[in-house]
Design a protein that fits this description.
This protein is of the alpha/beta class and 339 residues long. 33% of the residues lie in helices and 15% in strands. Strands 1, 2, 3, 4, 5, 6, 7, 8, 9 and 10 form a ten-stranded mixed beta sheet that branches. Helix 2 runs antiparallel to helix 6. The longest helix is centred in the C-terminal third of the chain and has 16 residues. It binds iron/sulfur cluster. The site of iron/sulfur cluster has 13 residues, from loops.
Length: 339
């Protein structure tokens, strides 16, 4: 169902009806059209060509990954996968009753000092996975009933995903695709995914360059994330659901609330409301815990969980800027008592 939306302009049309729903029977994954027209194959060829001097993410390493050289992401020609399974820890609109079909890619292009998946992102736990095998994982997740395929940390493996996707579609894949990213994506990569990805789910982590340098080791992160998220929104519009409340297409912005970083959160929320519009679906995540390089002696200022007062403040900040589609899960019980 393709209806013109209030923010559509010119010939631009987005799949949306009020209130943010489409009927399941009218939905088909975005990639089928590209596959049938042959454009998906052309897209794959361009993407693989990018590996020759890799600038697929804002790190701009320029290494030849076709010769298996890795840059910051330490990933060569083929993706390394840590695990794939039906994930019940994601948002209700993704996990539904049968889980979100998560595929966790190893390594990462960010260097978050507080990384909660350190073994996967920094130690590279996982194994090299050829395209046919990666396609098989997608199909397995479809067979066990997952509602979507959820690519976790895909920023550095866009060509590898396209390569496997082509095979998976030929073998019957029909689930919506979720691009679950830390938002350190290049514009070029996101454009390669136009018409391929149904649901973009960037975690917009930090607003200021100094903070991004200290905690993510990427001072250009905020600028890159803003650029990439605007493009994601342009491609898919606001998040829409089927009649059972499952997300089918659109943008879902995550933000991990950090201890003492309320001002960062406030700026991010203001930007979302102003730049992407207040209808943006936002998940303010409360589950931060000290991990990675955060210890009693290093990065001590974030060596605690957030308080319930802090979480309350960010909820109020979201409402104050007009955001009205906040993910509805109750705050976790682990929140420290209000201080
Ligand atoms: S994808 Fe990897 S090799 Fe390519 S620019 Fe990013 S970090 Fe460097």
């Amino acid at each position: 169902m393709y209806l013109r939306t209030e923010e559509s302009s010119g010939s631009e049309r987005r799949p949306i009806s009020e209130p943010y729903s489409i009927e399941r029977r009218n939905f088909e994954p975005a990639y089928l059209r590209l596959f049938e027209s042959g454009e998906l194959r052309q897209r794959l060829e361009s993407a693989l060509g990018e590996l020759r001097s890799c600038r697929l993410c804002p790190r701009d390493c320029g290494v030849n990954r076709l010769k298996n050289r890795g840059g910051v992401c330490k990933t060569g020609r083929y993706a390394i996968v840590s695990s794939h399974f039906a994930h019940f820890g994601e948002e209700d609109c993704l996990r539904g009753t049968r889980g979100s079909g998560a595929i966790f890619f190893s390594w990462c292009n960010l260097r978050c000092v507080f990384c909660q998946n350190y073994d996967i992102s920094r130690l590279g736990e996982g194994r090299t996975t050829l395209p046919g095998e990666l396609a098989g994982m997608m199909l397995h997740l479809q067979e066990v009933g997952c509602h979507n395929i959820n690519f976790v940390t895909p920023e550095h493996v866009v060509p590898q995903i396209l390569e496997a996707l082509l095979l998976a579609i030929e073998r019957g894949l029909r689930l919506p695709l979720v691009y679950n990213t830390g938002a350190y994506d290049s514009l070029e990569s996101i454009k390669l995914m136009e018409g391929v990805i149904d649901i973009y789910m960037p975690d917009f982590k930090l607003w200021n360059a100094e903070m991004a340098l200290r905690y993510l080791k990427a001072p250009n992160y905020p600028e890159a994330a803003r650029r990439a998220i605007v493009e994601m929104h342009r491609q898919v519009g606001p998040l829409v659901f089927d009649e059972n409340g499952l997300a089918l297409r659109g943008l879902l912005v995550r933000h991990l609330v950090m201890p003492g970083f309320i001002e960062e959160t406030r700026q991010i929320l203001t930007w979302i409301a102003q730049q992407l519009r207040p209808h943006t679906y936002v998940n303010l995540m409360d589950q931060y815990f000290p991990a990675g390089k955060v210890t009693d002696t290093d990065y001590t200022e974030i060596n605690r969980r957030i308080t319930s007062k802090e979480y309350q403040l960010v909820l109020e900040a979201a409402r104050a800027v007009g955001l009205h589609r906040l993910d509805g899960r109750a705050p976790a019980k682990h929140l420290a008592v209000c201080q």
